[in-house]
Amino acid sequence: MNLSLLSKNIQEFIAKNTGASLTKLALQKNPFPEVDWILILNQIEAKTKAKDKLPTWFATENIIYPSKISVEQTSSEKTAAYKASLISGKSLIDLTGGFGVDDYYFSKRFEKVTHCEINKDLSEIVKHNFEQLQITNCYFFADDSTNVLNEMNQKWDWIYIDPSRRNDAKGKVFMLKDCLPNVPEFLDFYFEKTNSILIKTAPLLDLSAGLSELKFVKNIHIIALENEVKELLFEIHNHYSGEITIKTANILKDKIESFEFVLGNESDFPTYNLPQKYLYEPNSSIMKSGGFDEVSSIFKINKLHKHSHLYTSEELIAFPGRTFEIEKVISYNKNDMKTELLNQQANITTRNFPDTVENIRKKWKIKNGGDLYCFFTTDKNDNKIVLICRKIT
């Protein structure tokens, strides 16, 4: 950690140039020759990234930022705050502390939080920042978390782990065993130190793949921010053997859309119907959950088709996703398309449909945008249809 970055003049320069073009700044002469110009530019870039994602850090004086990548990979404050609301207790140890955003919010729910970070420089940065943020119940260890767990030799109320990929060559689909630490391999060891573990994974992880590698899973939390899935949380408790509940949350500016269901509940039977007055499109956290039949059963609305994942009803309901009023339903054929949508402006979505949005726009000369929303989909009778709608929420 370079403490010279904390000089008053450099901090004022960083604040003044937050959001400025780094390309232009890089061509300027370094006004602080005693400090590496790249370090200063990195602080400006990282602070710019933090403005919306980490407003508490952004608004606090004398914060030191790690690399831009560390800021990009860390939890946002909104997802960290939601995550911390799920658990509480006397003690938590974070085995993969990183930039410490999660631990900042855990510190408000636990009497004591221990931050493990194998990167010594990053550990020092987080310790320094927590002093600026006036967090006094966090303790920092720049060491491998396995060593910390062994040396401290105590029981924790919770262990929190955010494993990192160690082999990007394996592509988008990955297993927990391909991450560091290898949670499946260390699980029995962890349960010697706690009875409750919260594991954060990237949104790309398949839920069934996670369940195949873990045991004692009680809850799976799927967290989206402004309709983009950001993280999955596997909540496991030693020797738990009951039902697994999927809990979804879509964090919006003014509310949180929540939905939950019990995995494999045989009483959740969907109903099907042709398009009625209203159309519902689930938010991204529900789409990730795979609970499509449960949406129909719990909200008592009808699916359009087994594979369409769009829902309809005659009466308007409050729904965790987008809601539309259906103005017209047309068959997907040349005559109807020429009459209704040729050369028009509309927002297009495809669900269980053989053509892409790009091809549909090109074929029928449909411009993007406007107040019209068109869903190209398949109904319960396997007919290709277009739902022409106006958005309600």
TrEMBL record:
| Top-level taxonomic group | Bacteria
The protein's matches in Pfam families, at most eight in alphabetical order, are given as: PG_1098_Fer, Thump_like
Q: Which residues form the THUMP-like domain?
A: 321-391
Which InterPro entries does this one have?
PG_1098_Fer, SAM-dependent_MTases_sf, Thump-like
List, for all copies, the residue spans of the domain called PG-1098 ferredoxin-like.
Answer: 278-320
What protein does this entry describe? Uncharacterized protein
* Organism per entry: Flavobacterium saccharophilum
